[in-house]
Amino acid sequence: MKKITIGIVAHVDGGKTTLSEALLYTTGKIRKLGRVDHKDAYLDTFQMERDRGITIFSKQAVMEYNDMRLILLDTPGHVDFSAEMERTLSVLDYAVLVVSGSEGVQGHTETLWKLLETYNVPTFLFVNKMDMPNVSGDFLLHEIKEKLSDSIVRFPVGVGTMEDIAMCDEDLFETYMEGGEISQTIISELIYNRDLFPCYFGSALQLDGVDNLLEGLYQYTYEPIYSENFGAKVFKISKDNNNNRLSHLKITGGSLKVKDILNGMNGAIEWSEKVNEIRIYSGEKYDAVGEVQAGDVCAVAGLTNTYQGEGLGFETEEIPPSLIPVLSYKLDVQNKININLVYKQLKELEEEDPTLKITWNEEKKELTANVMGQVQIEVLKSLIKERFDLDVEFGAGSILYKETITNSVEGVGHFEPLRHYAEVHLLLEPGMPGSGLTFESHVSENELSKNWQRLIMTHLEEKTHRGVLTGAPITDVCITIIGGNAHLKHTEGGDFRQATYRAVRQGLKKAESVLLEPYYDFTLTIPTDSVGRAMTDISQMEGTMNPPETVHEKSVLTGYAPVSTMWNYINDVNEFSHGQGTLTLKFKGYAPCHNAEEVIEKTGYDSEADLRNPTGSVFCAHGAGFNVPWNEVENYMHVKTSLNLNSIDGEEVEEKNSSDVIINRKSTKSLNDSYATDKELEAIFEKTFGPIKRKKYTETTVRNYQQKPKQYKGKQNNNLPECVLVDGYNIIFAWDELKNIASKNIDGARDRLLDILSNYQGYKDNTVIVVFDAYKVNRHKETIYKHNNVYVVFTKAAETADMYIAKTTHQMANKYRVTVATSDALEQLIIMGHGALRMSAMNFKEEVDRVNKQIEESIKGDSSLENYLIKSEIR
Fold it and tell me: What are the strands, taking DSSP E only, across 790-855?
């Protein structure tokens, strides 16, 4: 029997749980259809879920259809519980994305689509609520294809479907035109490779279209091929009604039996524990079994050290979640009990949801938790009361800032009190925005044994390293071990912990640090007469917006803004729109803080007074240890490295560490090359036509966890031809001459820009491509033509200029030396990740002016224009 694990994902109120009920009923798993509004849904097993009518925790159900066994994982739809949903994606074979027929593609739906791409999950779509009045399948399909993918095709297979499927693959299209048939196997392969996404329409509540979806899952899915060796992924930790700790696993190889011994590593702790019980859940009930096979999803009792995202057996890969809280709240415990006991109890919740990050601030005597939003706060209060009988109130939220660096430095940490010894040298380099922290080692085992290197790596990974501006966690930094030393007799493991921590902090003190803050994507729908007020508000909130659009007699504003200025804006929206406005917020990522100086001053953090995170080192003299401040450590250190960190960006540097290991690297580009912070951009953003909606997860500051930061190694091939990609409207509204023309005639501004660039191209003899937005022009097809010697592109509907440029830089990276002329800060993030160079609008103008001046000087260098032309003809 074919065994498939599928997940149901959707925007809240899309009908996800209703579809799960319909699937269970259609397959005969349940005899009565439950309903969310009746508070009797089979998979809403917790009272809080039934009371609120939303899914809070992911659930499992097992059903059979023909000779297929479906393991169904129902996930939360509300954005406050999206971290719970994301953890489930890592164990899915296939997913069903539910789209509300009455609402269409909503903001969180697009987020889910990007996550499914990140986790590489083959996806079916089910457009629900087609029984609602005034719902058009053709209109919805057009919108879904525009916002998600052109490879979404209406199923079941009918008239015209085969042609649409063939269009998803160029080679397949040629084969289809010759033979006219596409086999079921080919369709299955296209779906499995995410080249095709079947889309079914119906009403889960009315059981309409559910049988078609089931048949599609039966016909067009593959059972994964599993290894004979044991492997498993931990995707969830929970507690049952008897407070037993359960580790929820997807078995990805071999088998697992009760009484088997499992081994793992949790931070620096190696553990070896016995499986006491294996449960197969379906709703709130479960069957205890003695053994599970590859492909099964189960809950295991007896394991106390597992953690979400952990790989067991041969499984090692772990992708940290991208949907993370950006707000921290103070916890006020009403009960007058031991705060240490409360802290220990609340840390149990962190096991079940690691994004909570329950912390105790010893100096302020405060408990804090990281939370996604108000709904999660209400659920947490109920859960804490139910489980621990504690009354907890959440104080005002505060922003979770982060810090990063913009240059490369060597950090040194030394720890040598009496009878202890360790020294660590680290190279700290700026990583690509959104890359988090990554760790490497470039030390010979002859210089520092592998055991000590592994220990340093463990200490790097186990700690939240604090920055020196506000004490916020650091991110987007690549840390490399480049040297170290141990003593044969006196070195202990804890010595390297101290030396490693101090090396990081000493490096941060030397580096140029930048404060980062989180940003929201927003979609604001309001009555048209409120647009002026809203645009003024967004401008005052340091936000960036696109021109307003009119949808169903209301105006829609989209853009992005700092979380710190916008997270409570819904209250103002309700007031000035008299309850007729809606505001959708999505976490976009981290970028430089708009009011960094103010935040740093308000925080009042003193890195030298932070005794838990010392910046200096401890050396030994005359039988006693003494402290050396961070700026004097190099005068005392024992290991000498030969890193040259003074090279300019783009120059290859040959580095030599203490063990004579040669490291060839290019100096990492500074943060200013990837984050635009200058005031010039603010004015441009308000005028530019480049919108903020993205289809690819790599087009935002949100991290792609499957990749390490961009490493610039080896020599750059300067023999490649040069190509300049120009964001047309961005340049027009940045150059005064063109902006003045555009205020009267946008066509005239475009023509003037093309004439300027024709001269520029003629002198530089490069390839120039100018891209203009046409994404708002309904049904517009991509248009490419040549204006003199310059290529001009008008993007297709639903594709923005920055989308086109991002795609093109990726395609041309190996064939051209690509430069992108734009001052769009978000575009800069993308093109840097694709290896292209970025030139701001003002820098590009200087370049064009310089070329024009050189042309004039060349002409003036001859006695006359006539002589110049004659000589040109002779040549």
Answer: 790-794, 817-821, 837-839
